[in-house]
Design a protein that fits this description.
This protein is mostly beta strands and about 450 residues long. The chain contains seven helices and 23 strands. The chain has one domain: Porin.
Length: about 450
């Protein structure tokens, strides 16, 4: 298969999949919700207005791709129904490092108890999955445009990736002082279900300016648990288990304060923890160097497939491949939420938020502004504008409906991605149902 079209297929698959599905977990609009689970997820010091709160089957999903959107690759021809491919233009718009990430979470059951306005207790059971891939612009450029633009230079093309899935069982405590300052803490037991990630990645390519001989230098390591790579036929196997011997611990802590003039501030540090991987834990290491002088078109045409494979095997034989078993530890992707809100009147609240998390080797910040309308204690409507992942067009919408003890919510930080998916580079969605009983006594 032509390498250029293989690369095209991969790039189109990425740009097609990302806008319509689900990097660490960004919950921007939901941070401003004043009641229920959506608020508590990013605010460990949050106090529920209900004595008992119960949540069932509340979910979150997100996806982002900072490289390019589908619309930036396929360009419509003027006065025509056809399109032309502009992958060169898409490569030009890429950053030096580009990120593809997905995140999913399902809260199976959460229970909050607030026997007093100054004390809150919380327990919850969740399953979470996180995936990311960071890749250099040079990798796509080499595959599509060739290596002639780097004659005489050495450049890096190694991607960095992580796939992680785990159960989370959390118990939390929030305390409010007489000075209207609240402190919150959550302890979380983690049970790792699967992991597959690169630990260090170095793939260097060089091209001799005289002979055009291509040199490769590799030092690339991967570790895994419950996912096994078979080097004989380059296949993958997955071992499913509802619970494993991969144990871990994490914690969240936060602080909130009520200031004069109906101003409140909040800060939360989330997912500070680790998982020890012991069950079916393995490592894979590729290292070495090789040189490829290339083949002329006539040589390639005149050789049969067996001879071509012999050439490929001889090149691969220059690279060493090691694998074995090894217990290891991974660390969860910590997050910071810091916000300020002001209640303008009984019908409207305005706020701002800074969110920072680490996606692999990159630190990814986000900034958000929010306005929430409170309609007769029955409906909250929130609008959010945010900046992140090199984009300035993220507009979010949140709806919280309250009817007696029932609260239902749906929200997204990227409404445009659902209205115009071909233009989007990120999408997310949250939903949930919960019940609140009794008002917290003073």
């Amino acid at each position: 298969m032509n390498l250029r079209y293989l690369c095209l297929g991969i790039c189109l698959l990425i740009s097609w999949a990302c806008p319509v599905e689900i990097a660490a977990q960004r919950m921007l609009g939901s941070h401003f919700v004043q009641q229920g689970w959506a608020a508590y997820q990013t605010r460990p010091a949050y106090h529920s207005p209900n004595i008992i709160s119960v949540g069932l089957l509340r979910g979150y999903g997100s996806a982002t791709h900072s490289g390019f959107s589908y619309e930036e690759v396929l360009i419509p021809k003027p006065e025509s129904d056809s399109f032309y491919l502009d992958l060169d233009g898409a490569i030009e718009q890429m950053g030096a490092q580009n990120a593809l990430g997905t995140d999913a979470r399902m809260d199976w059951l959460t229970v909050g108890i607030s026997p007093h306005s100054m004390l809150g207790l919380y327990v919850g059971v969740s399953t979470r999955q996180q995936n990311y891939l960071t890749y250099p612009k040079a990798l796509v450029g080499m595959l599509w445009q060739g290596n002639s633009q780097w004659l005489g230079d050495r450049f890096a093309i190694a991607p960095d990736f992580r796939s992680l899935m785990y159960h989370e069982v959390a118990a939390g405590l929030s305390i409010k002082t007489l000075s209207e300052v609240s402190f919150g803490f959550r302890a979380k037991y983690l049970n790792g279900l699967s992991n597959f990630e690169s630990t260090y990645s170095e793939l260097l390519v060089s091209t001799d300016p005289q002979t055009y001989e291509i040199g490769f230098e590799a030092d690339y390591a991967v570790r895994s648990s419950m996912i096994r790579f078979n080097s004989a036929d380059t296949s993958f196997g997955y071992t499913f288990a509802p619970f494993t011997s991969n144990h871990g611990f994490a914690m969240d802590f936060g602080i909130e304060a009520q200031l004069p003039n109906d101003v409140s501030i909040s800060a939360g540090f989330l997912d500070l923890g680790f998982i020890n991987w012991k069950q079916d834990a393995r490592y894979y290491h590729v290292h070495g160097s090789m040189n490829f002088k290339g083949l002329t078109v006539s040589e390639l045409i005149n050789q049969d497939s067996a001879t071509v494979m012999e050439i490929v095997d001889s090149l691969i034989s220059q690279i060493e491949f090691d694998e074995g078993t090894a217990v290891y530890t991974t660390y969860t992707q910590g997050q910071l939420y810091a916000s300020m809100n002001r209640k303008i009147n009984d019908f409207f609240t305005a706020g701002g938020l800074v969110h920072i998390f680490r996606r692999g080797p990159q630190v990814s910040p986000a900034f958000a502004l929010n306005g929430t309308f409170h309609l007769k204690d029955r409906l909250n409507v929130g609008l959010t504008y945010s900046i992140h992942d090199r984009r300035y067009d993220h507009v979010g919408l949140s709806l919280l409906v309250m009817a007696g003890p029932v609260r239902m919510f749906v929200m997204s930080d990227d409404v445009i991605s659902w209205l115009a998916p071909y233009q989007a580079q990120s999408a997310n969605f949250q939903f949930g149902l919960e019940f609140g009983f009794g008002e917290v006594p003073d």
